[in-house]
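As the work plan foresaw, our protein records have gained a structure token line. A representative record is set out beneath this paragraph:
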Amino acid sequence: MNKKALFSNAGLALTAAGLLVTVLIISLLPRIRIDLTQDSLYTLSDATRDIVANLDRPIELTFFYSEESVTEVPQVRAYGLRVQEMLREMVIASNGNLSFEIVDPAPFSEEEDRATAYGIQAVPLAAGREAVYFGVVATDPATQTDTDAGIYQAIPLVRPDQEEFLEYEFARLITRTLDPDPTVIGLLTSLDIDGGFNPVAQQPTRAWAVMDTVRYMYDVQRVESTADSIDSSIDVLLIVHPQSLPAQTLYAIDQFVMRGGRALIFVDPNSDTQTQIAVNSGEFRDSMSSDLPGLLQAWGIQFDSTQVVTDQERALYVTLQPGERPVAHLGMMGVQREGFANDIVSGQLQVMNMSSAGALSKMEGSTTTFEPLIQTSNTTMMMGTAFFSEMGDPTLLLDEFVSEDQARFLAARVSGRSASAFPDGPPQPDDAADSETPVPDDHLSESLGDIGVIVIADSDVLADRMWAQSQQVLGQRVINAFASNGDFVINALDNLSGSTALINIRSRGRYARPFTRVIDLQRAADERLRAEETNLLQRLSETEQQLTALNQNNGGTISPEQNAEIERFIQVQTDTRRALRDVQFQLNAEIDRLGTTLKFINTALIPGLLVIAALGIAWMRSRRRRLAVRR
């Protein structure tokens, strides 16, 4: 009776109405979502939600996307959907603070002019293909007029190779639109990194290449090494090789960080750059090391300024004298991709060159979060700085080296709440030893919120010789980078200049999930194919040489030996091509078998298991009902 009612006209109408109501409810509740992806690709981090939900005014997001032009490029089309999903998730989480639109700029249209006005340029996907737009713009509508686009920030090209940092880039785009004022960098250093004066040559020295880049992107304000306060206008404090800073300056740095100021710090157990300067000028110091005593420990960082990391696996090769054979210098290392953490600061770096660097580690009992950014290989050994200062031949390091089988951390990010290195107030001045210094009303014994500090245990990493060559072109300095040292500095300053929430956004996974088994099969086949092709080319070259020699010796006439050689070559060529086809056939057969297995699992096995499970549950319920009736 119930079945008849269900399949009657009224029952079918009620069922359809119920489905319609369900769809409407789901569509009206966009916040209710289930993210089953491995890296939670469609789930925003808490930091991003905090940013977009607390905007003080509305922001408009525009995705300039050539949707029609990428219909035949599945990879780009899939990534375009990924970008749209991310932006829509931000809009949903913004409580109405964000709006979003997609614009497809057709050629010679107003939309194309609009994209160009925002700095979005079409880029070709490949030779012979139509150029496409793939950029995002965030605008502040409150600043727009009929003749002025107002305040805006743009990502001219949303690059697929930056997919892990997609959420960070969009969150940064929004925050930069709200606060477009340039970041102020406070520079405190004992080196002439920003230019100085050479007493021997009696002429000024130009700034290091990294500072040219920093000054181009930010406003730089010098902080004296004897400063007793840090200007409130400074956003990020850049500290390079701090040596023998007075207690009052250390206190100023401490309070700057406690109040929420960010810091990028380069300490060093042995500055090779300073050693070279001392040799040239004759001005030697008692120590070539630098440290922030008390501060690093208070922030949860352990650093020994008397120990240098040596790394056998990542040692750089140097030439001591022109014409001599390069030798491995265990104190100089080239860190490759595997040595970088998947962080917005270091995740996309290629190689960083460092020299006589120290090691960082987390202090025991520290409440802060210690996140390594750069690390060595496992074949390392710690050596005293005294050995380096007296060493003239780097081959001596090879004689002393015994691997301790331990990776060392060369750079790290520290975040979270921290106690002050001066919990009882500022240190007493040297001329007031007999009197007590009153504690200022604004003194902080602990941080107001999460601190943001990045520490690198090497200052030579900034020197031109480690990462860049520069030349003058039409009166302008052109920097040619051969390592990613400069990129690391800019990434770090860019990241630290954001809000606390922005700094806490980490990289995400990738949308694309390749069939690793298929890729392995293709890679193995490619290796075999390349080997066969190499043999073919080698045989072809040898045969041509033999034919050329025979022609020269016989005046261009074809002898029986030449005919035999030609026939042999044709047979070899035929056999090799047949072998190539066999390898390709085997590859396709293996991939087809794998595909058939996957199809069977997806279309038959899994549904079959679900049907069996459903029948089993139904049988158990029926059995329970029968048992209940009997009782």
